[in-house]
């Protein structure tokens, strides 16, 4: 038993299980790993080729620059949804529209259409690469914010938000698979945490800043400032974020983290050395700037569009989808519902003051997202060394031990504090606890599914993001009505126990995860997906 993870009776190393350290485990038999490429005493997973064009071989400066720009752009894009939350009451009053309808079209619709379009962008990125989708997405988001600046009716604003949701899809979905393109398994947690920092602060800091902008310049001002930000992002996206998809042969085999077949179970250490017999010259920078490279894969576009649907049958994807969607949905809902709670007696806050209530949440995201990223790498490596050098994706799930109690206490505490009119400081303490929990839960769920199904990371995250979007759309549509009907205490108690029930799936996922990965690898139906 690998530190509580039950061994499989059929496969010694199901997809996702890999060797990170020096120690020889029994499942590796007598095969030598001395010639495999390493980072210190850690065997690189996946093994890079010898090509200078392999993104795994690029300099850390280039890789981190790409990651930083994409993470920042993703954070700004994510902020577009909730940034208008402090002004929802003003929009309702200005256009004479009920609060639930305003919330649905101003917040819910952008999330729903983003989630729906990701099916197409993920499939397209697998075939034509990610770069064209990133650049086109940035251009369309710039256009959408210019549109929002001059929109003069609720119908125009609603249509703009739908267009904005469509344009947001690549920057919402393709960043996680870019991490697996650029970084080895033991390096991914920190980079995912950087992305998590940007997402968390985008959701929260966006509301802080937009609160003041709405108070001073009105709703159009928020879109005007966003347009200026995307004017800065566009040249960085074009000149720095080159194509990261590498379609040429690379050392295959199990230790390769599932490439090219994430459900493969055979081992060929000869292949693991990553030796590429074809020595290709380094691609010029001018060539890297090409927006379109033709087809990088022979996969069917439409098959890729529908592939995320059957992936929901994979246990790792089911778990990650429920956890990630739940934690992020409730973080968004706190922002939406707190507008009504804090604008009413006894708090009576204006939009700028409501925006300021997100400061402690943003600080929590800035502090604990990097910490969760460090833990997502350090703890699994530490556990792998105590497991005979064998890494199991389930080791990532240890982070849920931090997320579960914090989120549960935060929801219950906020519901009680707001319903009883306790001082604002108490409300902020409790909602900050959930903000702390989010990066730990997202790190655990996203890194887990990437480790289990690396090749299918694009489609898996499409599934995750769509469920998150659907759940957020439903919650934003009925949230204010439920708040008015049941009050904050009953509503947030219900959210707390629903989230707790989902989170407790961590226990069987950790214990039986390896057997479930083996079951997927051996299943004929899974191989056809």
Architecture overview:
It is a single chain. The strands form 2 sheets. A two-stranded antiparallel sheet has the order 1-4. A two-stranded antiparallel ribbon has the order 2-3. The radius of gyration is 23 Å and the shape is globular. It has helices spanning 60-79, 88-95, 99-128, 131-150, 154-173, 175-182, 188-217, 219-240, 269-272, 285-288, 301-306, 308-311, 315-343, 351-356, 359-385, 400-419, 424-452, 457-503, 506-522, 524-527, and strands spanning 18-19, 38-39, 42-43, 390-391. The relative contact order is 0.17. The protein contains 20 helices and 4 strands. The longest helix is centred in the last third of the chain and has 47 residues, at 457-503. It is mainly alpha-helical. The two termini are 30 Å apart. β2 (38-39) and β3 (42-43) form a beta hairpin. α1 (60-79) packs parallel to α7 (188-217). Helices cover 67% and strands 2% of the residues.
Sheet with most strands: 2 strands, antiparallel
What amount of the residues lies in strands? under 5%
Oligomer: single chain
> H/E element string?
EEEHHHHHHHHHHHHHHHEHHHHH
Query: SS-based structural class?
Result: mainly alpha
Brief summary:
With 529 residues, the protein is an all-alpha fold. Helix content is 67%, strand content 2%. Strands 1-4 form a two-stranded antiparallel ribbon.
